[in-house]
What does this fold into?
Amino acid sequence: MYLYNSATHKKEPFVTHTPGRVEMYTCGPTVYHFAHIGNLRSYIMEDVLEKFLRYEGYEVNRVMNITDVGHLASDADTGEDKMLKGAKRENKTVMDIARFYTDAFFDDCAKLNIKTPEVVQPATGLIDEFIQVVSGLIDKGYAYEAGGNVYFDTSKLERYYVFNDHDEEDLAVGVREGVEEDVNKRSKNDFVLWFTKSKFEDQALKWDSPWGVGYPGWHIECSCISMKFNGEWLDLHCGGVDNAFPHHTNEIAQSEAYLGHPWCKQWFHVHHLNTNSGKMSKSKGEFLTVSLLEEKGYDPLAYRFFCLQSHYRKGLVFSWENLDNAAGAYGKLIRRIAALTGTDGPVDEEAAKQLKEKFLTQVGNDLNTSMGVTCLYDVLKAPVNDVTKRSVLASFDQVLSLSLLERAAVLREKEAAQAKTAAAPGGFTIQGEGDPAIDALVLQRMEAKKAKNFAEADRIRDELKAQGIEVTDVPGGAVWKRV
Ligand code: AMP
Ligand code: ZN
It folds into this structure.
């Protein structure tokens, strides 16, 4: 496939260190609150990317961290720890908060058909490894102790700003309004590897270390977790575009300094979901969740469909109207698939191959998911039998994960059940097993009862009973079944 690489600012052929195998790392959630649907846009696009690579035949080892310590309110190492903030807000312990929101995150992922990575590692579970890497960085001359903390020394690097997609304001860490410069830093881009001192309220979770009791900085966790579970050579690193700086820049700095060779080949950044009032943000506290969409009657997969309709490198504006449009289109698509009931003939292998080749080329062009969705409509229009259509749709759905055939089957069942509920003349509703002759007899009995002709009503009941039919009266009609 061809993928845009934020490290080189070019669309490039995707290559891996080991042929046929992808070592993939994803920055996971900071579990101090529910994931909002903006966060989940990033995880949906990363999920499609992983599934597309598998579809192309790669074996993928996907690793994700769970940030349950060390992420301060500002990515520039200042402010209160986000986990502590969450614990205070809910009057719970940090670990309770972490457990609750980690589970909630994976529940949301399941509803959106986002696969769980091969390895999911909470930061608090790997503190010894972090300490080992920080010690290694000190030994190699890339880190220093100052004021009780350990800092990465960016002046020792040949180059620091690998991503230049961010603006001047982002780069000016330490001189940004409201962010006080940390006087312990030798230069403004240096960042904390290990904290023992913060002028903010102290962490609940702390560990012993060669530099005193404290806790790790945020950036070190991703480098360490990736190096442990992906190995020394990372093929693909993913995250939302806000992670590019300083988080990913700092990950590259510490990983390459520690390893002594280039670390990650390709960087994949998903642009933001915005509302008309700006970027959706967890720390602002007002945001939309999957549960809220469900409460409003939306199928979570309609949101996935909405995300797939636009390119991951463009900002996406969320509005209820936009979601309604996507939900309507998704519903219509499912309806058309549900109508593919033909069972004749084998799969037309040649036609299927051509459709799949087009899908591979289209989606393989920098993960063009909206073209992937268009390919679904191409299948519906193709001059092939229903068996072939269903087979190709199922194949594309390995990547798009819209539960196309499953939702279509549910719709067919629902419609069949509704068809069995015949609205009879006289305002009665007869619910049965779809036999018009029985429906007619049940209706005659209802009418006899209405006319107070109970003898006739009983006679019909006996006649139905003789045929093995049991009738139950319900408000406004009757239900019958074979016993
Ligand atoms: P967090 O839980 O804040 O660490 O973020 C989890 C993931 O969501 C990261 O990859 C972020 O870059 C990404 N993210 C944050 N806000 C948005 C947004 N509005 N739209 C898309 N992705 C986002
Ligand atoms: Zn990360």
